[in-house]
Amino acid sequence: MAGRARRARESRRTRELEALVQITGALRDARDMPAVIAAMNSMSHVLLEARQAVYMRYDPGTDSLIASSPYGFAETVRHVRLARGQGLTWLALTARDVMRVNDVRQDPRAVYRHETRGRAGLFAPMFSDDRLLGVLVVIRDPPFGEHDAQLARTLTAQSVTAIERAERIQSIQDGREGILLALGRALEARDFETHGHTERVVNLALAVGHELGLSDAHLAALRDGAYLHDLGKVQIPDAVLLKPGPLDDREWKLMRSHSVAGEDLARHIPGLSPQALTLIRHHHERWDGRGYPDGLSGSAIPLLARIFSVCDVFDALTSARPYKPAWSVQDAVGELTRQAGQGLDPEVVEVFLSRVHSQPGNRPEVPASRP
Questions:
Q1: CA 180 centroid distance within chain
Q2: Mean pLDDT of 156-179
Q3: Segment 55-76, tens digit of pLDDT
Q4: Which of 62, 90, 161, 210 would you label with 259, given CA atoms 20 to 30 Å apart?
Q5: Can 243 be counted among the known catalytic residues?
Q6: What totals of helices (H) and strands (E) does the chain contain, helices first?
Q7: Which CATH code, of 2.40.10.220, 1.10.3210.10, 3.40.50.2300, 3.40.120.10, is assigned to 176-356?
Q8: How far apart are CA 236 and CA 232, in angstroms?
Q9: What pLDDT score does 370 carry?
């Protein structure tokens, strides 16, 4: 009997160590907040034999706890919000330590206890120094012991580190995007672009990218390249860039050099992906091969550049410029349709027209018909 008990303890300890290694790897690889929370919730199943788990994220704006990435719960739990002081979860925060309850379904302090599929509950608060992050809630049938509480402390400590890292990454990304947006606005101001053109085109391009199933990395490249697509125009003299009349051959050659110049300048921006650079270089290529700088045609044009071109043309048509009034959406749609298979990728045009521009928030407010 003693030998079997010892072997059982050793076997459980081995499983726990393996689970901790797995958890460490999962949290290390999670680069953003949703991935960290999903990993933490799913790993509680491995480490604590949870039937259900949910991270109750603290929202300082409403001073409440909000359910995030629930594991094993009904869909309704995704909408749970606990005001300060409500339920067992807030009691654990008050205690600032793991709290164990043998039967949450019979505990009158529990909120949403009818959503649980097990009897025992474990509530592990999470703090970054003195800043409240949230509470990990774990549900299973057998009661939780002190050994389980210690495992939960280990899991949440690693999760806090992963959350802090994800927050730092997000802060860096937000700051970098703000810089790119500011630069894009400066470029459109110099070129007398309609105010907000850059942001509108970025949003439209990201919507098309989502519809086409682009990865997060390619969506980020699409966003960055769209912000900087006209970067090379900083090297174009005002006499050419702002010339009110038609350009001569020499001036056209200089103007068309901006895409290659922009790519060269953008190479010096840390962290800008190769895909973003190809958008900057090729956003004036045409589907029929009559564009610049390389005369690429069809699918040889990088997809991100093809997506951008459709969105850029649409917003340019539906925006007023010093040299033209705004076109109506109907007229702009007709022009995109005519350009499909000529200047523009027909598949991207189809996606844009059928799924993106028709959605609320993506259609610009313009007159019903062209003046």
A1: 16
A2: 81
A3: 999 999 999 999 988 888 888 7
A4: 210
A5: no
A6: 13, 6
A7: 1.10.3210.10
A8: 7
A9: 33
